[in-house]
Amino acid sequence: MPHGGRQMSVFSTGDLLGEYPSNRSVERSSSLKNQMANKTRWRASALSLKIPEFPAGPASGRPVPAVGLGTFSLPFVEEEDVDVRAAVVAALELGYRHLDTASLYGSERAVGEAVAEAARRGVVASREEVFVTTKVWCTQCHPELVLPSLRESLRNLQMEYVDLYLVHWPMAIKPSKPHYPMKREDIMPMDLGGVWQAMEECHRLGLAKMIGVSNFTTTKLKELLAIAKIPPSVNQVELNPSWQQQKLIEFCKDKGIHVTAYSPLGGQFRSKVLQSMVLDEIAQARGKSVAQISLRWIYEQGASMVVKSWKQERLKENAEIFDWELSDEDRWKISQMPQHKMATVTGLLCTDGVSSVDISEVDAVEM
């Protein structure tokens, strides 16, 4: 177990890119409903599923489960998405306790309803047993809109607080409802100091137990740390064997910022991870899946992760990475893999139009 990991006694799009390159509608029709009929069998397996935790934030902060369920999907989730709700309940039955959502995703309502259902059925003792992360989108990254955005998220979640509230991307867009893609001409200079003061107010009010960021480079983190009264507890970034971010990981460790990986399997489309010959060779030799090799590698970096899947078999598989290790040779082979980042600022923006802000200033690419 990596330094700082703790065993639970007996949940962090992926962010802008989902996991497993399968069609979401196919997953819905071919597997989820039939699998739910077998929920008793899955609940029994949850009795032996133990997910470690990583300490994060202040001493009073709550540890972050090493593996959580991501709820980002393209197309975006519909408000009354019963499949997302069922998947969240299934994950909780298996032992997941970290649920990752965002104002952009459209999944907050489904997540909240699933937690309430799980509590009613005794799958969890109460909402307090679940670690919930949500995020403020670029269109609300303005000092006067951060708190109202969190209050709206809490209404969607039907919760009094979130465990972790993140600035989704270090970029401000002309105020509007959260949407994607965004117009280049709508990019505005971001008042990072004012936005972070508003995030700190969310924490002081008890509406966010911890606050953090997402897609922040070391440069952006240095800028934030210079002005923050409450430092970020977490930086959620794209992280996997195809985008290893060693510089950022070391910086965050030095500053006491926990790293959570999104797109731990390389993203929903054209995944360099799932198609990797190196990872496939290691997986075959160890009797594991390529996904498990990637997730285990992330865990060994001292990072937690959020993985999106609506399939119960994969939910279970993704959490079965804690009772074995990669070898030194495995780690060396992975360290030599070509690097390729999927989530960049240009992917968030319409192809036409001209920005008055330097695009490189708001990107998340860092070697």
Automatic annotation (TrEMBL):
The keyword Signal does not apply. GO terms for biological process: response to iron ion starvation; siderophore biosynthetic process. Keywords: Oxidoreductase. It holds the Pfam family Aldo_ket_red. GO terms for molecular function: 3''-deamino-3''-oxonicotianamine reductase activity. Residues 67-331 form the NADP-dependent oxidoreductase domain. The keyword Oxidoreductase applies. Belongs to the aldo/keto reductase family. PANTHER family: ALDO/KETO REDUCTASE (PTHR11732). This is NADP-dependent oxidoreductase domain-containing protein.
